[in-house]
Amino acid sequence: MIKVTNLSKKIGDVNALNGLSFTAQNGKITGLLGPNGAGKTTCLRTVFGLLKADSGYAEIDGIDVAKEPMAAKQKLGLFPDPCGLYERLTPREYISFFAQLSGLSAREAKQATIDVINKLAMNDIADRRCQGFSQGQRMKTALAQAVVHNPSNIILDEPTRGLDVMSTRILRELLLLLKAQGHCVLFSSHVMQEVAALCDHVVIMANGQVIAQGSVDELCKQAGKETLEEAFVALIGSDEGIAA
Amino acid sequence: MINLLTVLFKKELMDASRDKRSVMAGLYYAIGTPIAICLLMSVLLQQLASPETLKINIENANRAPGLIAHLSSRDIVASTDADERKAITLSISEDYQQKMSEGRPATVTLIADKSDDKLRKYINQVEKAMALYSSEIASLRLVSRGVDPNLMRALAIEVHDQATPDSKGGMILGFVAFTLILALFYAAMNLAIDTSAGERERNSLSLLLSHPLHSLHIVLAKVGAITTFSMLGLGVILVVSKFSYAMVPWQQMGFSITITPAFMLFSIAICLPIALMSASLQVFVSFMAKSFKEAQSYVTMVLFIPMALSMITTYDIATDKVQWLPIAAQQFALMEFIKGNPIPVPQLLLSTLITLVLCAAFSFLSARMLKSEKVVFGL
Amino acid sequence: MNSISNCSNRLINIVMMPILIIASTALYAESNQNSQPKLTPCYMEGLADKLMCGSIAQPLSDDPNDGQIDIHFAVIPAIKPSHPDQAVLGFAGGPGQGAIDLAAVFNHNLRFARETRDIVLVDQRGTGYSHQLQCESDDLKTQFAFNDVIADLQAMGAEDTQKCKAKLNIDLSNFTTPVAAKDFEAVRKALGYKGFHLYGVSYGTRIAQEYMRQFPNAVLTSTLDGVVPMQQSLAAIGGAVDGSLAALFKRCAADTLCAAQYPNLENNFNSLLTQLEQQPVQTQVRHPRTNDVIAFTITKMKFYSAIRFALYSHAQRAIVPMVIEKAQRGDYSPLAGMMANVDLTQSLAMGMHNAIVCGEDWPRLTTQTRVQYSKADMGKAMIAGFDIACPILNVKAVDEAFYQPLKTSTPTLLLSGGRDPATPASWAELAMVEMTNATHLVAPTATHGVGSQTCAPKIIAKFIDQQSMQDIDTSCINESNDKPFFMNINGVAVANSHSTDAASKE
Predict the structure, then answer these.
(1) Quick check: helix, strand or coil at residue A21?
(2) pLDDT of residue C497
(3) Of B7, C198, C312, C403, which is most buried with the most CB atoms under 10 A?
(4) Is C181 helix (H, G, I), strand (E, B) or coil?
């Protein structure tokens, strides 16, 4: 479970986060939806402890990230944007490396890596160096890294960007599987269809604040619109930054 | 925790070793420098070794046939061709013969520019040859008067030179030690920048930091990997030096430069702290910089300090004081070792200690920087 | 005043055959007597470089009851030991010179060879630090006053020799060349060299050849400088002296300046000798160092031998015409100066010198060779000296085989000086009759010991390096190294300005 309470963060002169609060439950996929510059990435970075909030706090399974970063991070899987690949390592090496950093032993990491590579159907690229990978291959590798150690909470920053249809389907299935296994999945996106198709809970953000949250249906109802996209536009009050 | 460090270190090594460009840049230096020095010195020695007859301008040579014969027996001859002769003129005075036969000093004027470095050697050669002639004639004059010419030698000055053939190469030995120390910095410079500023620019740093580990772990693993490559560079330059220096005919200059296995081991032991310090310094500076490019220029600038320290020792400037400073002291110890002199232990210990403390400080500061979001995101 | 002591030494002083290099004791580190030689740093006069000195114990004779003597040696380390299993072994002359004391000279002559190889100097038994056999010798004042004509040479010589023999108290038969050669081999083994490049000067060429004969496998190359053939007696030296002197007279006569300044030099010299033979001159000179007025007796033999020693050095040769002319006019100061400058008595171990000549040169003399060698004054005096000393010293004659010319296929370089007053080029030709891989180079204007003159050091180094004389350019050895004669007491110059090219030519 990821819980964000009253987060505020100023970056330079901009209030990137402005009293942000929401909760992502276990066994659910929570989508963080917002236009560009809404503070999605800042929010996620604060959750995994890279940024320190000016006020408020983020908890992972009840552990305050700022106070016990080690314990909190142990329970996290992270899919960052951009992916942060090591160009000179193969996905197998890369995934296994982060698995070990997340606390797996060398042997466990090796097995977990094999499993996740199978699961994401990336055997064809598993032993090629990441240099020259397509966007989709990069995303897959990063995703594998995020879930290899089977964390209870998984945070994905714009995971579907650049994925082809097949990869998107694989991602979707994986997220649903994770959800079925009872994990807490939190992802940010500005792609309505993705969010609409996957999320149990949607948090709409703008200017560092939560504008609205609830299931897709609830949000549509709240805005009085048919689709999530229309609801989103209505809720944030402009169509700025919306991707089709 | 040791486990984590091992994992991080292994990854750094693997990543760095696949960075062919950076590795090769370091190795080019380690392989190229001794070879370049040796080629250069070989050419230089060849010029020195075949001391072609020194051609100078001698005015009124016919007034002093004895002197001229003596000079030519020492490979100094008169030449009328202004192009091939050195800018040295010997002028025999008009009353040379008169003075000589009267037993008065006969004047010979040497006209040359002593500030001309290239000429100085030849001027010395001419002066020496003439001094020898002068003393030879003077001795025979005394013998002719029934006096033992040894009376002119009030002192029999015996020099007991403590030097060995290995220690006589002074300046060149200093330079050899300098190239070794420089290898530590150069062999891993690109890797250091790549693994710190480069890692940040490729966004993998933030991912790394999002994992449950201390930033100090990351810094230490990086320092360890960079040090490994520094030491690899040192190893390579030592091996290349061992073989290439052996091929230069130093003996023609009266000394030899021998890289012995003992010296190689000594260098490795002495240089390890420097490599650690250099690695941590380069990581620190790279993280301080906002971008890869900036890191490159900063690191190059910062490296000037250790280079200067090393250079000062090479050229023996203020050695008494400087030899207590890190790097300078280590280089001094290297030079003394290769010369077969006793090693200045207190200086070496102190500077090694300082070096290690600096390494700890830079590592600690780097780790602290990694906790700053400004540094991590290059804000 | 002890004017009648040490006559035989004095006599042999006159007739000995040294290379003109004078060196004396410098710092010397005593080393222990383990079979594994311990090397200690040491320094020798005139050489700043650090040497390594050591010694090994060698049996004095075949009889173990005779005990052992220490053979001392010094290693001049190679600048860059590219050939650590080889060394250049230097043999000193005399006989009687110690090689270690001559380190500076060997270092100079072998400076190019030393770039890559150690130089090993061994004090031959009886010389230097190796059980030196030295007899008392006169100081300069006594020498100056000594009159070899009126003294009873026979009695004096016998007395001196007895005294010397009593002082040495050792069987000199154990100090001959064939015995000593074994010490050099023991040093080679102790120091662990696989092979030696030999470099012998003057008498040193005799022991070098003997070493080659006894230990052919230990010798890589051999350079013999001022060659004494095995079949040649040292007593034959008289001819060489006269030849060298004749060359000097010829050169002066050919030189317009010298001929003008010193006309009829050769005749004058000969007539002066005749005068001195008839009536030695008794005069006084200033002591060359103390400036005291001392007695100076000039006999024919003393005058001749002073000129003879001057012939060894180019610098001294330059003043010979002037010395002769001054003496003729009754001014003996230049002669005194020249004699003071040649003070060899301290650097030669006379006991060892006598052991060699009495064991090797004297027994071989036949009626025929006695007559032949006595044609020259020097040879005659030498034989007279032998005849006095040798019967008393009772040195066992060496084996007849010793006098056979050396048969060898080892690369050998023989060097002779065209002006050599001791070992003429013809001696080298004699030495190489049975050598199948020998090259003989004659430096036309060089005197005794070509290795310290001309460009020989470079040629020697190349020869050692490639172990053959093939393709080595030796033309530089022909370059003249004569020095212009002194035309007056102050120097070479004269007040007219016509061309003096002839001064530097023969």
Answers:
(1) strand
(2) 41
(3) C198
(4) helix
How do strand C219-225 and strand C118-122 relate by DSSP bridges?
unpaired
- The CA-CA-CA angle for residues C344, B147, C343, to 5°, reads 5
Is B78 among the domain residues? Answer: yes
Cβ under 8 Å to B: C residues 463-502 = 479, 481-484, 486-495, 497, 499-501
Task: Indicate the residue of C78, C115, C337 with minimum beta-carbon distance to B146.
Answer: C337
Contact B14 A51 (CB under 8 A): no
Residues from chain B contacting residue C495 (CB–CB below 8 Å)? 97-98, 101
In a domain, residue B329? The reply is: yes
Checking if the pLDDT of C346 tops 70, the result is: no
Task: Please say which residue of B117, B152, B187 terminates a domain.
Answer: B152
> Which of B210, B369, B376 to mutate: most A Cβ within 10 Å?
B210
Residue A63 lies in a domain: no
* Angle at the Cα of A206 from the Cα atoms of A205 and A212, rounded to 5 degrees: 45
Query: ipTM value of the model?
Result: 0.84
The answer to whether the Cβ–Cβ distance between B15 and A74 falls below 8 Å is no
Contact between B326 and B274 under an 8 Å Cβ cutoff? The reply is: yes
Q: Which residues of B touch A74 (CB under 8 A)?
A: 212
- Domain presence at residue A80: no
Cβ neighbours of B21 (radius 10 Å): 10
C319 vs A230, B144, B329, C306, C453, CA distance in Å? 124, 8, 59, 12, 19
pLDDT at A231 over 70: yes
Question: How does DSSP assign A51-106, residue by residue?
Answer: S--SEEEEEETTEETTT-HHHHHHTEEEE-SS----TTS-HHHHHHHHHHHTT--H
Q: What pLDDT, on a 0 to 100 scale, did the predictor assign at position C20?
A: 37
State the distance between the two ends of chain B, measured CA to CA, in whole angstroms.
30
What is the Cα C72 distance to its own chain's centre? 20
Say yes or no: B86 and B180 in one domain.
no
pLDDT tens profile B246-291: 888 877 777 778 888 888 999 999 899 999 998 999 999 988 888 8
- Same domain assignment for residues B196 and B243: yes
Question: Is A45 a residue whose pLDDT tops 90?
Answer: no
Question: pLDDT per residue over A61-79, tens digit each?
Answer: 888 888 888 888 888 888 8
Q: Mean pLDDT, to the nearest integer, of C105-132? A: 91
E-only strand ranges, C202-280: 219-225
Question: Is the CB of residue B196 less than 8 Å from the CB of residue B286?
Answer: yes
From B62, B64, B73, residue closest to C481, measured CB to CB: B73
Torsions phi, psi for A88 (to 5 deg): -95, 0
